[in-house]
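Reopening this one. Same input as before:
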Amino acid sequence: MLPFLPLFRRLRHGLTLGVRVLAIDGEGRLLLVKHGYTPGWHLPGGGVDVGESAEAAARRELKEEANAEVEGALRLHGLFFHPSYGGRDHVACFHGRVRPGPALPPNLEIVAATFFPLDALPQEITPATGRRIAEWRSGASPGERW
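Same output, byte for byte:
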């Protein structure tokens, strides 16, 4: 193997970092979003921008996707490997209290952002979202993969 090949691969396929949030309102309901480009209900979140911390990205995504403001601190639930995106993607999942603002109109990215009671979550939750909710609710140690 050529000596520069590992470096070239690393530069060409950099690590990506995304965030998701287990966001709970004052009534104990969980915020989920439905995207216009993929099926199922997801935890709100997205990519971390250049020069942005993971927590700042989580706060920004909550505001952009659901007009929700974090109250107090966000706590890290776990850091997860997400092999579906180039084999180097990771997701930082936070949890915390949020204060909902006025509902945003649906758009091409987010067609719905809804707070659900924990005992009445929709059936169309994605598998990874379901795992994160189950870990958080039970206090179980987070898994390694998204």
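So the earlier flakiness isn't reproducible anymore. For the record, The radius of gyration is 16 Å.
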